[in-house]
Design goal:
The structure is a homodimer.
Chain A lengths: L1 E6 L3 H12 L1 H8 L3 E7 L13 E2 L3 H4 L6 E4 L5 H12 L3 E4 L2 H15 L4 E2 L10 H8 L5 E7 L2 H13 L3 H10 L8 H4 L2 H15 L9 E2 L7 H9 L2 E12 L2 E12 L11 E8 L3 E8 L3 H18 L17 E2 L6 E11 L4 H11 L4 E8 L4 E8 L2 E2 H12 L9 E5 L1
Parallel strand pairs in A: 1-2, 1-4, 2-3, 4-5, 5-6, 8-10, 10-13, 10-18
Antiparallel strand pairs in A: 7-9, 7-11, 9-10, 11-12, 14-16, 14-17, 14-18, 15-16
Helix pairs in contact in A: 1-12, 4-5, 5-10, 7-8, 13-14
């Protein structure tokens, strides 16, 4: 019998205990042993929970119990959780966590400490989708050329609704908050930080690359307006918040931002709160993984899968996918050297010579226009829409600054990268 | 160092050797050991191959070489391959195979013989998509409610082209044959047998159910005409060949046939030669796995992933996903008790009273019509199109027989199940 301690019995923790109870028969058949929750650690013992497991408000009732084989960390946060899982590992317990922030900051230290102990974290990226499993095991024969992921259901819900119903950003954000999809302070989701945490985890498995959130380009969806969504749709694109990892020779670029993406791509077809991750391997080509990225049961499904895996085999895989360092280590591409095609929307007063001045600035910054379109915005202003050929990030940023300074430009130009 | 012997160095075998050579650096970092091909067994030693590995035409140079740890069976066929892998296992070698037919017939015997030896077969279902991995490990916490898979690229290519280009079945079959997607005798693909082999493998992992191809409903796409594709499209459906496994209480139904499926479903959006498998778990909900189902490199990607997994851990998982039998074993639902909605196209001579007679036969067989539509076919005949409410397979089959016997019915009614 395998005994589990759960630290943090909120939505996911409750679901973990429920799955281990509801599906005990099939789980035991698959794992070859029975798996039971010996203790759940909570802050408030008197709060009602939809599960009957022994509870304690003393974390040491899990960490210091020699009978407990696996510690499931669901308390959230970074530093406190880090201390807890370190202590668990030092007590020779296997650890399962759903904590993406913990991993975004401390995954390499944890790998070092874990050594021969199992440390699993399937639920930390894209909830119920077994993407860690796929990337670490299923695609292990490949050099990964790229990863493009819709990994935040809140943002995808908002982008989908804006596209389907023509509502504006603020309206849909309020709706997402009312439905409980977005927090009162939505910055962590809509600012791209949640997606960035997940991307960093995937990038370690794909490339063995150690980066922190502050090392990479992170933008959110806050500047995507209904106008951009409508224009994109008209020209056969969807707008999605993507986490992107891309390898080019010995450099890896990591970035999170809204993207225009052709509606023909499978990942553009992923709508609503669902998540999806496209992975291109040098040998296999493109594979894509789709499913629910959040929710108690979906997340707990991944947590319990990790528990079963540990019950079956102890530890069988290197935590971050590499059993020894990769020769000729890959390096992180500086943010301002990233290359992309760009969509630009520039709102200008309707005056003579406007287009000539703007295109001159394009030229001065080595930006080559692919398509251009002018549309009236109000009676005295127009939207100039551009798509560019491949350009370099720092050139685009310079160009935007110069354009913004022009007196006939009414607001900061909107820039969305095209993939 | 792990040494591999490859039995059968055709397209996939060559790709396996190439990947182990081309990606040796990253594979060695991921596996923690170097992996080399010690011997490839071929029938014809003089044939040119795009890889330099030691070759032999004597299978015992692999099977009886104590230095070879892993035997990769890529010879194809059923009984001869069965003898070969049995001999490999008896020589205490791990086995990796891409042979779906072998597994469709002998997977439980192989599991019995393998015992503590690793026996892996990721490439046998949906080529490069790590679906075995996902189902056996990633979703192991779930009772699987259903599996619906597009697992034959040839059929999906044909259905997609018929839908996109309005060409008829025979034209597109010829094109698929010219492109090398379909065999000269295409029955194995278009008749649904290839999909059935794959479905049986997935059903074992999901349900622990032992069935052979002859135990389940297998139909192909041969009766799907351009007319049906067009009608389906008009009403918001795609037609796809699906392998379906579904659990209902203690019964499991397994079936392969063309399906009408709403264009809104993710699986309906999988086009061309690509494969995709939707899996619904009781806890996680729907997840979907998409990618290339065939081709040397894609298939070899899965074979090499299995080799890496074995190099990492020996054996860590029960071959078919169950470490001990499931209590309250599930049973296979008899084919004629399967329930579904149905689409029917009945070509009739344009006479009075036709509709009354046909609907009376519907009624007499407990079939309730959901929608009905009449369209002229030629100047003297019409197509009657029906969709039914949920009905039972044996009732539909009886009804079709009765309708076919009517003198004003010009050909066997076309029936396609709706999912």
């Amino acid at each position: 019998m395998i005994k589990v301690g759960i630290i943090g019995v909120g939505t996911v923790g409750t679901s973990v205990a429920q799955i281990l109870r509801d599906n005990a028969n099939i789980i035991s058949a698959r794992a070859g042993v029975d798996i039971v929750v010996k203790c759940g650690v909570v802050k408030n013992l008197s709060k009602h929970r939809d599960i009957e497991i022994p509870l304690s408000d003393n974390i040491n009732d899990v960490l210091e119990d020699d009978e407990i084989d696996i510690v499931v960390e669901l308390m959230g946060g970074v530093e406190e959780a880090f201390e807890v899982v370190k202590k668990a590992l030092r007590s020779k317990k296997a650890v399962v966590t759903a904590n993406k922030a913990l991993l975004a900051y401390h995954r390499y230290e944890l790998q070092e400490i874990a050594q021969d102990l199992a440390f699993e974290y399937e639920a930390s990226v894209a909830g119920g989708i077994p993407i860690i499993n796929a990337l670490r095991d299923g695609l292990s024969a490949n050099h990964i050329k790229s990863i493009m992921g819709i990994m935040n259901g809140t943002c995808n819900y908002m982008m989908t609704k804006m596209s389907d119903e023509g509502v504006d950003y603020d309206t849909i954000l309020k709706e997402a908050q009312d439905l409980g999809y977005a927090e009162a302070d939505p910055t962590f989701d809509v600012g791209g930080f949640d997606t960035a945490h997940k991307l960093l985890i995937l990038a370690s498995i794909a490339y063995g690359i150690d980066a922190k959130p502050e090392d990479i380009l992170i933008e959110g969806i806050q500047n995507v307006s209904q106008e951009d969504i409508s224009f994109a749709k008209e020209f056969g694109y969807a707008i999605k918040l993507l986490g992107i990892a891309k390898k080019d020779a010995e450099e890896v670029e990591l970035r999170v931002h809204a993207c225009l993406i052709s509606q023909d791509e499978m990942i553009a077809k992923i709508d609503g709160v669902m998540n999806g991750i496209s992975v291109v391997g040098d040998k296999v080509g493109e594979t894509l993984y789709y499913g629910p990225g959040a929710g108690g049961n979906a997340t707990a499904s991944a947590v319990v899968a990790n528990i079963i895996d540990i019950a079956r085999s102890g530890k069988s895989k290197p935590m971050l996918g590499f059993d020894k360092p990769l020769e000729g280590k890959l390096i992180l591409k500086p943010t301002d050297e990233i290359e992309s095609k760009y969509y630009l929307r520039i709102n200008v007063s309707d005056k003579k010579g406007v287009l000539a001045k703007i295109t001159k600035i394009f030229e001065g910054n080595n930006i080559s226009v692919e398509t251009m379109l002018q549309r009236p915005a109000t009676s005295h202003s127009a939207n100039l829409l551009f798509s560019t050929h491949i350009a370099v990030e720092k050139d685009i940023q310079n160009m935007i600054k110069e354009i913004e300074a022009l007196d006939f430009v009414n607001s900061k130009p909107v820039m969305i990268r095209i993939v």
